[in-house]
Amino acid sequence: MSAGARLSLNTATVRERWNLAQAIDGCARHGVRGIAPWRDKLAELGVTEAARRIRANGLTVTGLCRGGMFPAADAAGRRAAIEDNLRAIDDAAALDAQCLVLVAGGLPPHSRDLAGARGMVADGIAAILGHARAAKVPLAIEPLHPMYAADRACVNTMAQALDLCDLLDPAGRHGELPRQSPDGVPWQPAAALGVALDVYHTWWDPNLQRDVERAGASRLLAFHICDWRVPTRDLLLDRGMMGDGVIDLRLIRSWVESGGYRGLHEVEIFSAADWWQRDPDEVLDIMQQRHERCC
Amino acid sequence: MSAGARLSLNTATVRERWNLAQAIDGCARHGVRGIAPWRDKLAELGVTEAARRIRANGLTVTGLCRGGMFPAADAAGRRAAIEDNLRAIDDAAALDAQCLVLVAGGLPPHSRDLAGARGMVADGIAAILGHARAAKVPLAIEPLHPMYAADRACVNTMAQALDLCDLLDPAGRHGELPRQSPDGVPWQPAAALGVALDVYHTWWDPNLQRDVERAGASRLLAFHICDWRVPTRDLLLDRGMMGDGVIDLRLIRSWVESGGYRGLHEVEIFSAADWWQRDPDEVLDIMQQRHERCC
C-alpha cells in the first residue's frame, strides 16, 4: 500500500494555492486516494465537472465541507440556512460523498442564548435529515473546539453530537446507508446521521475514547487529522501538520479503528503562516511522510 | 449595598499598573470588598505586610492565585511542584484566603501523554491535600478552557474537576472547613477540595448547569467573572469586561446561587490590548457598573 493509500486531502489544506481541479490532479499524482472539497472551490469548478474529474481519477470523496450554520436571528434566516443545506446535500449526492459535514453554527448576532442556538441546530438537522436520507448522503455533525462555541459551532463535544444523533436518528446505530471502504473490506452501513471526528477539536476531551466507542462504526462518518501546536498563535489559522504538535495521533487512531472505522484519514490544516505558504506538492509529500511516521 | 459589595478584584485585572499595595488601596477606595492576589505580586510586598494591609482594610481574600502546575518530566520536577504548592498553602493560610486556586498544569515538555499528565495532577493534589486541610485552606481546582489543555491545564471541565474531588475527598460534599459569607449569612462549610468556577473557561460547556449543581455549596469555592469577546484576538490575553461578550452572566450566576454559593464575584480579566492599558481606577469604576448591569 502506498503512503497515500489511507489519506484524503481536505482542500482547505492547500486552499491558498490550488483550485479544486489542481487539488484533484495533485491527489492523483501523489497517490492520495481521497479528497474532501469545500463548497467555494466546488462552485468555482462546477459540481458536474468536479464529479467527472473525481471519478476519472478514482478518488473517494470523504466528505463535502460544509453544511450546517443553522442558528439565525429570525425564522427567515433559519429557513435560508435550511435551503442552503438542502442544496449542499444535492451536491454531496452528485459527488457520491461519504458524508456532508455539518458545522453547527454559533450564536446569532447579539445573542447570548447558547441553549437556544443549540435548539436551532437540532431543529435545522431535523428539517434536512429526510432529504439527506432520500439522497443517501449521511450527515456528519462535526463537534468544533469549544473556542469556536460563540462564532462557529455550538456543538463542542462528541457527546453533544451523539446526543443529537440519538435524538434525531435513534435507529442510526445500526446503519442504513450502504458504503464501501477504500480497501474493499466490508464495512458497516452508515447511519443517516453521525459524527465527523476531528482530532484538533476533540483531542483534549477526557471522554473521547468513551464517545468514539459510543459512536460506533455506523456513526463514525469521517476522521480528520492535523496537530495542535504549542503555542497556538491564532485561534483559527494555526493548525499543525501531524507530528508538529501534542496530539497523540496513534492513540486516537487506535480508538477510531477499534470503534470500527475503516475509512480514509482526511488531512485538514488551516495554517496561514506556515503550510498555506508552501508549495502544495511539498505539502502532500510531507503529509504522507508524517502520516506514516506519526499516525 | 454598594456596587462593589459583591465584588472581588483579581489582581491580574490591573496587573500592569498596580502592585498589590495599590490594588488593596484601590479596592478600599472603590468599595470593592474582596481581593485575589497573584503570588508574584504577593512576593513583592511580602506575605506578612500584605496580610496586615488586607486586614486593615477589611478585605476578604477570595483566593490566592495560584498553585497547581503538577505535571513534570521527572520525579524531581513533580516533587518541586509539590513543595511549591505547600508554600502556597502556607501563604494562603497567612492571608486567611478562602481558597488556594489550583491550575492543574499541562503536558510535560515533549509529552503527548494527556492521560499521564492528568494522573500527575491527581497525584499532586493527593500529596498536598493533608497539608491544606491542616492549614484550613480549601483547594479550588479551576478547570481551564480546553484551548489551554496542552500548556496550562489538563483539567478542562467542571465534571473532570469534580471527579477529582470525588476521588480524593469523597466526604467533601458535606464540607468541613468553616467559612463566613461576606454579608454574614450562614454558609455551608467548605470542602477541603472543591472547584473555582470561571465563566471564561466553562461558559460553552453543555453540562455546566448540571455540574454546578453537582458541586453544591461546599465545593463551589470561588466564582470568577469576565466575558468572552467575539472575535477573541488572542488565546490568552483578550478577555472582555462583563457585558462586552457573549456569556450569559446572569444565567450562570443564577445557577451558582441556586447551588448555594454565597461568596463574592471575582473579576479576573487578562486583556493586554484593552483593560490593561487603562487607568485602574477607571477599570474598577466600570467593573462595578457592569456588574450591576450585566450580572
Descriptive report:
In chain A, β8 (220-225), α9 (249-258) and β9 (265-267) form a beta-alpha-beta unit. The longest helix of chain A is centred in the middle third of the chain and has 21 residues, at 114-134. The two termini of chain A are 15 Å apart. Chain A is of the alpha/beta class and 295 residues long. A 9-stranded parallel β-sheet of chain A has the order 3-2-1-9-8-7-6-5-4. Chain A is globular and about 45 Å long. Chain A contains 10 helices and 9 strands. The interface between A and B is medium-sized, with 31 and 31 residues.
Identify the notable features of this structure and list them briefly:
homodimer; alpha/beta; nine-stranded parallel sheet; 41% helix
How much is the radius of gyration of chain A in Å? 18 Å
Uncertain ranges of chain A? none
Assign an overall shape of chain A. Answer: globular
Oligomerization category of the chains in this entry: homodimer
Could you give the order of the helices and strands of chain A? Answer: EHEHHEEHEHEHEHHEHEH
In short:
Two copies of one chain form a homodimer. With 295 residues, chain A is of the alpha/beta class. Chain A has helices spanning 20-30, 39-45, 47-56, 75-94, 114-134, 158-168, 199-202, 208-219, 249-258, 280-294; strands at residues 7-10, 34-36, 60-61, 64-68, 100-103, 139-141, 193-198, 220-225, 265-267.
